[in-house]
Design brief:
Strand order of the largest sheet of chain A: 4-3-7-1-2-6-5
Number of helices of chain B: 9
Bound molecules: flavin-adenine dinucleotide, flavin mononucleotide, FE2/S2 (inorganic) cluster
Helix content of chain A: 10-25%
Order of helices and strands of chain B: EEEEEEHHEHEEEHEHEEEEEHEHEHH
Radius of gyration of chain B: 18 Å
Number of domains of chain A: 2
Strand content of chain A: 25-35%
Oligomer: heterodimer
Number of strands of chain B: 18
Largest interface: A-B, 29 and 37 residues
Number of domains of chain B: 1
Number of strands of chain A: 16
CATH architecture of the largest domain in chain A: 3-Layer(aba) Sandwich
Largest sheet of chain A: 7 strands, antiparallel
Strand order of the largest sheet of chain B: 3-18-17-12-11-8-7-4
Chain lengths: ~260, ~300
């Protein structure tokens, strides 16, 4: 069930340049959520009235972990919060990733700040006995390498700068390794999702993608978060409640 | 103390003066997990047209200081899908249902009103801020003759009360209100969103794909209160006030300006229980000020009151 829940920030620390991991005490949302879902974080400031959608990166019985990049005034504001500051949130929202019962081998593909929700998903997949491979792409600095490694699934890394791992983008890396899972799960920039979807289609592997759009309500009421529906009728569907996770052939992605 | 929050709008009795603003509350179901819809005076549903409207290309939302811009483009599945899929849920609650109607031509407005023949709803709200295709996309609601014409045409077609929802993007709101009354409107509601724009200076282009959009939220409240005050001088039909209402105190301002009832829109996005909080806020203001019935303060700031 969706709900408004307020809780104390427990930790909020910079894990890479401009990228922060925040844990918040939100037991009700934490117990109800599943991988691929997100929360709306209210900032309660008159210059920033709209809540910010952030994916759930991890959850236990008490706390929720959010990993976010400071890209604008709202996420910068979040980065300045300290332990014991209170945060009001709405969640869990969205459909989350679908895990087919018969799944045995999945490949997770993350781009930049799209990586965190895949960490939550990886744990769920491993618990279900699914074999998991992880491919992550970054511009320069990578994140969450050790987190995946400690789950026993060290990720293969691609960087645009060549600073670490494969020099190039993550879809090129994937092509090179010829990994052929039963299902791809992906989150990252739209252009990455677009190229991955093309590749997945070419090799005949279904692909779930988590997409982003600007949101006001987060619950399906405002119709702000439109994404183009590949089936055309209706032309637009809603990221916040029809998604954010779609099969890549359900939505029109742009390269 | 015994308080009376009931209001009567064109013969329809609301248990309290707080309704939802069209387009901000979906069809009610979206917020039913957070609040008890039975407590609302009325639910005004999202705009409905005769045929499905696909809506504008994203980006559709931009945040601004004290509010937001939207250019949804009145996306909706059309009246028959709305009646089949959305109305049955809402009808289960003890609240009034107000259907917001939109069209590109007078014929489309009349057609969508006709789609509700024999359907159990309580009132219509006519969104005359839609672009009029016959006049190059100029909004119906910016020309008093057009307002009177479209209101009269729909009024002749329906047998439940009709609210005309006015656009604030005009020079003289009183004239528009008078035109709606002359066309036969049973009530008016105002304000719809205020035309605005936001530019992404790093991308060198507007944030909204549609370039311009409608401003809502607390940023527009003073404009809305002023317009309710001015409209109330010109018409005798009830007024539903809206624009930036976040709290009970905000709602009281509208009532003192002359509104019979109020609607809560953008506040729902900031606080999913906003509608209930506004009702509670009105009650506690009445308690504090020893007000038994809102009629004691309605329009109280109007000269001659
Ligand atoms: C379902 C979903 C999950 C997300 N998960 C994460 C995550 O786990 N970590 C993370 O760092 N970011 C995530 N994002 C992106 C994050 O919401 C934006 O970076 C954030 O809203 C930017 O806010 P700001 O005030 O810092 O930026 P500003 O540019 O100042 O924001 C202005 C407005 O635009 C909106 N906005 C700007 N960029 C985006 C965007 N990319 N997506 C949606 N709205 C945007 C803001 O919410 C705000 O309303 C997610 C987005 C969605 C839709
Ligand atoms: C996302 C959004 C969608 C809206 N859709 C409609 C609509 O379909 N029909 C309509 O008459 N008004 C629509 N409005 C206008 C609101 O009903 C209301 O008049 C306006 O937002 C001012 O009130 P507020 O500041 O409380 O939001 C919409 C407003 C928003 C923010
Ligand atoms: S954010 Fe309001 S409908 Fe999706």
């Amino acid at each position: 069930m969706k709900r408004v829940e307020s809780g104390a920030v427990l930790t909020n620390s910079e894990i890479a340049k401009n990228i922060y991991a925040m844990t918040i005490r939100l037991p009700l949302i934490a117990q109800a959520c599943k991988p691929g879902q997100f929360v709306m974080v209210y900032l309660d400031r008159s210059e920033m009235m709209l809540p910010r959608p952030i994916s759930i990166a991890d959850a236990d019985d008490e706390t929720l972990t959010l990993i976010y990049q400071a890209v604008g005034q709202g996420t910068e504001y979040l980065s300045r919060l300290r332990p014991n500051d209170a945060l009001r949130t709405l969640g869990p929202l969205g459909n989350g990733f679908t895990i087919p019962d018969e799944l045995t081998h999945a490949t997770l593909v993350g781009g930049g700040i799209g990586t965190p929700p895949l960490y939550f998903l990886a744990q769920e997949l491993l618990e279900r006995g699914v074999q998991v491979s992880v491919y992550l792409g970054f511009r320069d600095e990578s994140i969450m390498r050790e987190d995946f490694a400690s789950l026993g699934i060290p990720p293969l890394i691609a960087t645009d700068s060549g600073a670490y791992g494969f020099h190039g983008n993550v879809v090129a890396l994937l092509r090179e390794t010829k990994d052929a899972p039963e299902l791809f799960y992906a989150c990252g920039p739209t252009s990455m999702l677009y190229h991955l979807a093309q590749y997945a289609k070419a090799i005949g592997v279904p692909c779930q993608v988590s997409v982003e759009e600007r949101m006001a309500c987060g619950v399906g009421a405002c119709l702000g978060c439109a994404v183009e529906n590949a089936a055309r009728d209706p032309k637009y569907i809603k990221v916040c409640c029809d998604g954010p996770v779609f099969y890549s052939d359900q939505v029109v992605l742009h390269g | 103390m015994d308080k009376n929050l009931r209001v009567n709008i064109a013969g329809v009795e609301l248990k309290n003066p707080v309704m939802t603003a069209s387009g901000t509350f979906g069809s009610g179901q979206e917020y039913s997990e957070f609040i008890d819809l039975n407590q609302l005076g009325a639910v005004v549903v999202k705009g409905v047209s005769h045929t499905p409207w696909e809506g504008n290309r994203p980006v559709r939302i931009a945040e601004t200081h004290g509010g937001m811009l939207n250019s949804i483009g009145l996306q909706n599945p059309g009246a028959s899908a709305f009646i089949a899929n959305d109305l049955p849920f809402l009808r289960k609650f003890d609240t009034k249902i107000i259907v917001n109607l939109c069209g590109h031509t007078i014929e489309e407005y009349v057609a969508v009103a006709g789609d509700f023949d024999g359907i159990d709803v309580d009132m219509f709200e006519l969104n005359i801020s839609c672009p009029n295709i016959a006049q190059g996309g100029m909004a119906f609601g910016t020309d008093p003759r057009m307002i009177e014409k479209v209101v009269a045409a729909v009024k002749a077609r329906v047998n439940i009360p009709l609210i005309a929802k006015l656009s604030p993007n005009v020079t003289d709101i009183g004239e528009m209100a008078a035109a709606a009354q002359a066309g036969g409107a049973d009530a008016i509601s105002l304000i719809n969103t205020v035309m605005g724009m936001k530019i992404d200076i790093n991308r060198l282009k507007p944030v909204l794909d549609n370039k311009v959009g409608g401003l809502s939220g607390p940023a527009i409240k003073p404009v809305a209160v002023r317009m309710v005050y001015q409209a109330a001088k010109r018409v005798s039909i009830p007024i539903i006030g809206m624009g930036g209402i976040m709290t009970g105190e905000d709602a009281i301002e509208f009532i003192m300006a002359g509104a019979a009832a109020v609607a809560v829109g953008t506040a729902n996005f900031v606080n999913p229980t906003a509608t209930i909080d506004v009702i509670t806020g009105i009650e506690s203001f009445m308690e504090k000020q020893n007000i038994r019935d809102l009629s004691e303060i309605r329009g109280i700031i109007q000269e001659g009151k």
